[in-house]
TrEMBL record:
Protein name: Recombination and DNA strand exchange inhibitor protein
Entry keywords, A to Z: Coiled coil
Coiled coil: 42-116, 247-338
One Pfam family, short name: SNIPE
Record carries keyword Phosphoprotein: no
Amino acid sequence: MNSIELLLSLSTALGAVLAGYSYYRGSQFKAKLARYSEIVDKEAYIAEIDDQADKRQRALQEQEAAVKREIEQKQQRLREQETAAAKAVDASTQEAKRIGQEIQTLKQDLAKLQELSFLEDYGFYERRFTYEDSGKYAQALNACRERQKQMLKDNRAALCETTWSIGNSEAEGQKMTRNILKLILRAFNGECDAAISRIKYNNIETMINRIEGSYKAINQMGQTLNFQIAPTYKQEKIQELQLAYEYQVVKQEEAEEQKRIREQMREEERAQREAEKARLEAEKEELRYQKALEEARRQLETATAAKQSKLLAQIDELSRQLEEAQKLKDRAQSLAQITRSGHVYIISNIGSFGENVYKIGMTRRLDPMDRVVELGDASVPFPFDVHAMIYTTNAPTLEKLLHTKFHRRRMNVINERKEFFKVSIEEIEAALNEAMQSNPDLKFKMQLTKVAEAEQYRQTQAQNRELVAA
């Protein structure tokens, strides 16, 4: 047997030994495993329980963390909501304060508008300018409009302080700016022209407010793009409106003055015609009485004693009538030569105008009562009562003194041709005495009747009372 075979034999034997030993050890292990399997199972169970506990604990920890995160998130949202609520409350407070201020401003504006409305109902307007006549007003109005034209030419009527560009082109932006400025000026000028064309005595403040409102509205709309009408241009428009109104008023006053002058001229012409007519009639009367007197004197020379006494009485009567005719002729000639002489009359009409309302006027007619009768025609229900008929060498001056004295007491402050005044007869008497003392050249005598007879009015009142009593 060689060495190789020996080795093979030994290897086979060793493998058999090892296999037997392995079988033996495996049997023992299985026996031991069978003995300790219950313990191994419990440990595995415990390990499994521990593993599950660990997992549950980790899950609980994760859940706790998630809950904490959710709580923190909710707290954060609550804090944010609280901050937002505080800001909203603060904003609401500021808004309420602003609205309160606006309400107060609106109340003040409303009070002003109510006052203006009340004043406008009475046609109240305080003039802003003091030009002498309509010509000066026309010049001022034209100058105002020329200033506006110059502002338009100089691009000062409306402004834009922002330089705009369109498609990176400043030229296009400038073109857009010019077009928008032209548009807002056209809108503003249209509103102003409409206000000026509609202005009347009872709406001037309303028209000024309309221009102001248009100015504010247009500037608010242009605020986003920084377009606005210049305040100086607005003031020029308001001044134009005021000048246009006062120009109309002055023209109307001048027309009324011209009408008064024409009426005065017609009155003077009528007085001249009446004076000339009276002079001619007085001359005829004088000539007739002169001839009659000469005839009576001629008859006296040849009359018997019985007829002489009768003729003497006739001569005396004719001499008296001739003297009166000569005085009437002299007076007519004087009136024809002195056109400022005439009568200032103080008359009332209680039935038509009430107590303490007097008309103070003048007339140059030879018989001034003709004028009083003319005033008491069908236009009033009752005739006028005469309180004074004052002859003076300067009737226009005396009348003007009385009118100036009682200017603020006029019943009609717009039309000064309406010569009615709300005064007492005692005030008129005092004014006449004052005029007499301060103007001795007027040379007038005054006899005043303080109580108005008002016969027809009082009879009518009495009959009405009887009818009511019945």
